[in-house]
Amino acid sequence: MKRRADFKVAVSRGLARRAGYRCSFPGCEAPTIGPSNESPTSSANTGMACHIYAASDGPAARRVSSEMSSTELTSIENGIWMCYRHGKLIDADDCTYTPELLKQWRRMAERRSELRHALGRELTPDDLAAEAFATQTVGLTSPDLMPRVAEVVRDSGMEIIWGKEPALAIRDAAIEIARNALTHGMATEVVITVTAHSVELSDDGALFSPTDLEMAETPRGGAHSMLRLRSSAPNVIVSYIRKEDRNVVTLTSTQNLNKVLAEHPCSTTVYGAPSSVAAAMTFIEERSECGTIFLRPFRGILSYSDLFSLKAGLTARGLTERDIVLVMEAHSEGIRKFLEQEIPNVRMIESR
């Protein structure tokens, strides 16, 4: 016998209120309530409470869970608030809009509603920079490469959290990196993975880093996409490592870089003393698989003397061509200029 577990009015109203009466679909956020001309106190509702796991187990039902009871299916935890358009869309495509993805969208929508309420205004990417993406892992193939990457960027909430232009620049760069792996690198598999605070592209093709794209003698789409990424998303750091016969490119925001680097295989701490600088040089030499090395100064600060020691160490060991990033706290213009002029292969970024 078919069962039907519809939400009670109180649950639907609760979902709408927790989402601020806005659609939870990333990039939509359409208002779903407004005045109605029926009476001076009437309102028109254009939103709908959607089930994450289906209310019915009939043949047309999507995202069915036979293990959930009627009480669980009708609980507020099993709902997400959508505008009518996107509510119908997620019900028609259960392969794309999985329960795991919808649960993350609800978390993100309610967090945005919470912040708007607390701040009393519309949100900016700066307000959301520390928020987590909707995580997902998707395999990429040539025929559907471009639309799949576009869907991943949209579904992750990246445009909302990192901003529209940075997200689109990342989309363009990801397409070029994946296409390069499949065509020139002869990869049989390219996987894009969105974690809470980063985007990772992994392939089993020939050794090839994003730096190779930028340094190509005859720049094409890949080179232009990487250069555009640097200008459009200055707070996004691109790193590369060859790991277990796979190319792995990671894009991480400076907002959460310290968290990511705490366990990163291409990252180490520098204390400033000569012995620590020497240890950092050994670390760089031993990490030939790392396209980018991250040095994290203890307490986020290095002096001019420390930088002179760093320069001497890199020169003495022939490491002046390696791509090195210092992850530091706020720094003076003088320190920045010193690096540009004296150690051009070392970049500095501010951690937050």
Summarize the structure in words.
- The chain has 352 residues and is an alpha/beta fold.
- It folds into three domains: 9-123, no CATH class; 126-258, Heat Shock Protein 90, CATH 3.30.565.10; 265-352, no CATH class.
- 41% of the residues lie in helices and 20% in strands.
- The chain starts with 8 loop residues before the first helix and ends with a strand.
Largest sheet: 5 strands, antiparallel
Strand-residue fraction?
15-25%
Could you tell me the number of beta strands? 13
Low-confidence stretches: none
With helices defined by DSSP (H or I, 4 residues minimum), what is the helix count?
A: 14
Estimate percent helicity: 40-55%
CATH topology of the largest domain: Heat Shock Protein 90
Mind telling me the CATH superfamily name of the largest domain?
Histidine kinase-like ATPase, C-terminal domain
Average pLDDT rating: 90
Distance between the termini: 56 Å
Strand order of the largest sheet: 5-6-7-9-8
What attributes characterize this protein structure?
alpha/beta, 14 helices, 20% strand, Heat Shock Protein 90, 13 strands, four-stranded parallel β-sheet, 352 residues
Question: Secondary structure elements and their pairing?
Answer:
Elements (H helix, E strand, L loop, with lengths): L8 H10 L14 E3 L7 E3 L1 E5 L18 H4 L5 E5 H9 L6 H21 L5 H4 L7 E5 L4 H12 L1 H5 L1 H20 L6 E5 L3 E6 L6 H5 L6 H12 L3 E8 L2 E8 L3 H5 L5 E4 L3 H13 L5 E6 L6 H13 L6 E6 L4 H10 L3 E5 L2
Parallel strand pairs: 10-11, 11-12, 12-13
Antiparallel strand pairs: 1-2, 3-4, 5-6, 6-7, 7-9, 8-9
Helix pairs in contact: 6-8, 8-10, 12-13
